[in-house]
Amino acid sequence: MDSSNIIRGSCNCGNVAVSMTKNVFPSSCSLCHCLNCRASSGSLFAVNIPVPKDAVKIEGTPKVYVDTGGSGKSVHRHFCGDCGSFGLDEESCGKFCLIGQIT
Ligand SMILES: [Zn+2]
Ligand SMILES: [Zn+2]
Fold first, then answer.
1. Nearest ligand to the CA atom of 84
2. What is the DSSP letter of 4?
3. If we measure between CA atoms, which residue out of 32, 95, 39 comes closest to residue 67?
4. How far is the CA of 36 from the centre of ligand 1 (A)?
5. CA-CA distances (angstroms) from residue 76 to 5, 21, 22, 27, 57?
6. Considering just the CA atoms, what is the radius of gyration of the chain in Å?
7. Which among 1, 30, 69, 71 is most buried, taking Cβ atoms within 10 Å?
8. CB–CB of 13/59 below 8 Å?
9. What's the pLDDT tens digit per position in 22-61?
10. 6 CA distance to ligand 1 centroid (A)?
11. Contact 89, 97 (CB under 8 A)
12. Could you give the angle at the alpha carbon of 76 between the alpha carbons of 38 and 15, nearest 5°?
């Protein structure tokens, strides 16, 4: 695959990385201010970028915290167990990963 067509980001220590092709990266994102996103992101809001789950490649082995979202559905929050960077949220619909603080 042409590497210039790939968006890649990693956690603070580099042990967990995510990548996807540019064509699946949306032009807009949402900010979630719910209490759980605030706690997970360590900020007043989480930046959620919806991308198709199948289009995201994960390198490394993130830890997963199964959380319950405001809708009552489960959210799998993936983060680096070494540096603690919060990376992906997997929605219970299985359709999207939401990318948090992996840059
Ligand atoms: Zn890390
Ligand atoms: Zn939230």
1. 1
2. G
3. 39
4. 21
5. 28, 22, 24, 24, 16
6. 13
7. 69
8. no
9. 898 888 888 888 888 888 888 898 888 888 888 889 999 9
10. 20
11. yes
12. 85
Q: Which residue has the tokens 């319950």?
A: 68
**CA 19 remoteness from chain centre:** 11
CATH for the stretch 3-99 = 2.170.150.70
Nearest to 22 by CA among 37, 33, 8, 41: 8
Find the ligand nearest to 44 CA: 2
Domain boundaries defined on the chain: 3-99
d(CA 31, ligand 1 centre) in Å: 23
Percent of the chain with pLDDT over 70: 85
> What pTM did the predictor assign?
0.80
**What is the token pair recorded at 7?**
């968006």
